[in-house]
């Protein structure tokens, strides 16, 4: 999914200077952003207070939206560079097309994973016809410097491993959790998992103390380490945890995001991640002149133009503002 804001603001991310080296409970509120005509998302990362969780650098939560009489998601062809995108659905379907020729409908609890590497473009839309409800999350993972120029590729994994405990089913989206490993390709130590909790569940999930973590609430009423987390909000948890207490007052679902703190400093602007002003300026020029990012065939509409670069220089800095 794209950042469709017409006046894109640079996010200066990365570095370990602001990683919280101990367990914390920092509740992050979302910012509402309009995507197209009928989809509004709640943006949790980048956030005014926190820019990254491990290599996770962008998190949008959307829905549940009733799109029975609406076009649903309509994201025109747009570029990516230096990152991976993760499409994750609880309800509905998203039709993916990209400049490699991939055409794939992603359905609930299936992994749609783009590794943009040096350059890719893609579109996303609700199929016609489509399901009544649309609910999911779109996430980005920053690629380390040694992998950010890799050849682009798309993966679709309909079957993912699970970890179970009384009242809990954890689907491993990326990385590994409690011995279960996702088939999705990763380039840094991280984990992404969808945690489904039944009403009355009271469990403790094993964690890696070297990772930093956050939990995105998707639905229901869940308490994470004693903190109630409402759908569309995110609780940052810091590092140093060996387990995570979870309770559910109703059937609930949350996403666990974590990883080794990302040491490199980044410039994230619009749909590009680079290491300098020159990186993103060149990417914008290449997209606007039709080179490098390829062409998406089959989408009924024009591709998305890039916004203007800000008038001030972009410099890579730390993880929080």
CATH homologous superfamily identity: Jelly Rolls
The CATH architecture comes to: Sandwich
User: What count of structural domains?
Assistant: 1
Q: Kindly state the mean pLDDT as a whole number?
A: 92
Q: What distance separates the N and C termini?
A: 24 Å
**Helix content bin:** under 10%
The whole-angstrom Rg is 18 Å
Task: Summarize the biggest pleated sheet.
Answer: 8 strands, antiparallel
> So what's the overall shape?
globular
Q: How many helical stretches?
A: 1
The count of DSSP E runs of length 2 or more, i.e. the number of strands, is 26
CATH class (first level) name: Mainly Beta
Structural class: mainly beta
Low-pLDDT sequence parts: none
Briefly note the CATH topology name.
Jelly Rolls
Helix and strand sequence: EEEEEEEEEEEEEEEEEEEEEEEEEEH
| Beta strand % | over 45%
Textual characterization of the structure:
The structure is a single chain. This protein is mainly beta and 321 residues long. The protein is built from one helix and 26 strands. The strands form five sheets. Strands 2, 14, 15, 16, 17, 19, 22 and 24 form an eight-stranded antiparallel beta sheet that branches. Strands 3-4-5-12-7-10-13 form a seven-stranded antiparallel beta sheet, with no helix packed on it. It has a four-stranded antiparallel beta sheet with strand order 6-11-8-9, with no helix packed on it. A hairpin with a 2-residue loop joins strand 15 (168-177) and strand 16. The chain starts with 10 loop residues before the first strand and ends in a 33-residue tail after the last helix.
């Amino acid at each position: 999914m794209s950042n469709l804001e017409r006046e894109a603001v640079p996010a200066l991310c990365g570095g370990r200077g602001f990683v919280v080296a101990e367990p914390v409970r920092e509740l992050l509120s979302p910012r509402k952003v309009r995507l197209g005509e009928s989809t509004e998302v709640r943006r949790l990362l980048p956030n005014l207070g926190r820019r990254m969780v491990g290599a996770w650098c962008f998190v949008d939560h959307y829905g549940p939206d009733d799109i029975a009489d609406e076009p649903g998601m309509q994201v025109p062809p747009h570029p990516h560079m230096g990152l991976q995108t993760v499409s994750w659905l609880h309800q509905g379907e998203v039709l993916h097309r990209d400049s490699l020729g991939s055409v794939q409908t992603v359905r609930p609890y299936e992994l749609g994973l783009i590794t943009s590497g040096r350059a890719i473009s893609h579109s996303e839309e609700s199929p016609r016809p489509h399901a009544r409800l649309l609910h999911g999350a779109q996430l980005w993972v920053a690629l380390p410097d040694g992998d950010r120029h890799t050849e682009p590729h798309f993966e679709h994994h309909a079957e993912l491993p699970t970890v179970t405990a009384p009242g809990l089913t954890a689907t491993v989206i990326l990385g590994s959790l409690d011995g279960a490993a996702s088939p999705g390709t990763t380039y840094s130590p991280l984990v992404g998992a969808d945690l489904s909790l039944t009403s009355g569940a009271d469990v403790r999930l094993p964690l890696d103390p070297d990772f930093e973590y956050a939990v995105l609430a998707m639905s229901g009423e869940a308490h994470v380490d004693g903190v109630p987390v409402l759908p569309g909000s995110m609780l940052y948890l810091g590092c140093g945890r060996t387990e995570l207490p979870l309770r559910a007052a109703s059937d609930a679902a949350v996403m666990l995001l974590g990883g080794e703190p990302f040491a490199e400093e980044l410039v994230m602007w619009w749909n590009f991640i680079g290491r300098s002003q020159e990186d993103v300026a060149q990417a914008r020029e290449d997209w606007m002149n039709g080179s490098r990012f390829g062409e998406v065939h089959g989408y009924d509409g024009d591709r998305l133009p890039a916004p203007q670069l800000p008038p001030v220089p972009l410099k890579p800095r730390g993880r929080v503002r």
